[in-house]
Amino acid sequence: MLELKSLKKSYHQGSQTIRIFEDLNFHVQEGERVAIMGKSGSGKSTFLSLISGIIKPDAGDITLNTVSYKELKESQLNDFRAMNIGFIFQNFHLVSYLNALENVMLPAKVCKVSKPKEKAIKLLERVGLGHRLDHLPSELSGGEKQRVAIARALIHNPKIILADEPSGNLDDQTGNSVMDSLFELIKQNHTTLILVTHSKEVAARCEKTYELVQGNLKLC
Ligand SMILES: Nc1ncnc2c1ncn2[C@@H]1O[C@H](COP(=O)(O)OP(=O)(O)OP(=O)(O)O)[C@@H](O)[C@H]1O
Ligand SMILES: [Mg+2]
To answer: How far apart are the C-alpha atoms of 201 and 220, rounded to whole Å?
Structure first.
């Protein structure tokens, strides 16, 4: 479903070259839930950014649902990302002047989701926020913000969810209950998940856990 072939990626900072991946190969099957662990700076966020197409590899290719990123023009890749990928970030990335409902509805327009309002309300109810629809992000707790972000990531039924330390900013109990919401929703939709986490407990919810070490993903 998702395949990374011979990926190479370095960053250039002045005269310095930071080599992240030299020859990375990886694949995920449809509906599979995969955790990625690894030390800070090992390249986990870079890995997700490559899969999302936000950053380009220096060499190699990524294929999602038989579509090769190499074959897509920039605008096509942007549309492809919007339609097929959902994101959840450590610091939520909600739009501060939109309320919970409006935040969740945000991707619906671009992705031409039918009955977006009904769907957004349903998702917010599913994550336990039916009573917080008109709250701005500043009027929500951290766990609630992350639930809004989860609902937003799923409104267009993406093929794959990329989550970068989604419970990293939450206390254990809140993090666990936010993870319960995420796993329940993706299980129902058969959504593929790639989850970056520093928590072994969170990783244990996934079928497979990989550790990113020196540019390679090792199955734990
Ligand atoms: N745009 C950039 N330009 C230069 N160097 C970068 C850039 N982005 C990341 N790096 C460097 O690449 C390395 C990998 O960064 P990345 O953010 O992928 O790590 P990470 O595994 O997600 O770390 P963390 O667990 O702290 O989030 C780091 O050493 C970082 O400093
Ligand atoms: Mg990171």
So the answer is: 14
CA of 165 to the centre of ligand 2 (A): 7
**pLDDT above 90: residue 110:** no
State whether residue 192 is helix, strand or coil: strand
Identify the three-state secondary structure at position 178.
helix
Which band of pLDDT confidence, cut at 50, 70 and 90, is reported for residue 189?
confident
CATH number of 2-219: 3.40.50.300
Q: How confident is the model at residue 116 (pLDDT cuts 50, 70, 90)?
A: very high
Spatial separation of the C-alpha atoms in residues 189 and 209, rounded to whole Å: 21
Query: Which stretches of the chain are assigned E, i.e. beta strand?
Result: 2-13, 16-28, 33-37, 59-64, 67-68, 85-88, 160-164, 192-196, 208-213, 216-219
What single string gives the DSSP state of each residue in 76-102?
Answer: HHHHHHHHHEEEE-TT----TTS-HHH
Q: Where are the domains of the chain?
A: 2-219
Pocket of ligand 1 contains residue 43 by CB under 6 Å: yes
* Nearest ligand, CA 44: 1
CA terminus-to-terminus distance, the chain: 21
- Determine contact, residues 128/147, Cβ cutoff 8 Å: yes
pTM: 0.95
Beta strands in 32-179, from DSSP E residues, in sequence order:
33-37, 59-64, 67-68, 85-88, 160-164
Whether 20 is in the pocket of ligand 1, judged by its Cβ within 6 Å, is: yes
Q: Whose CA is nearest to atom 30 of ligand 1?
A: 41
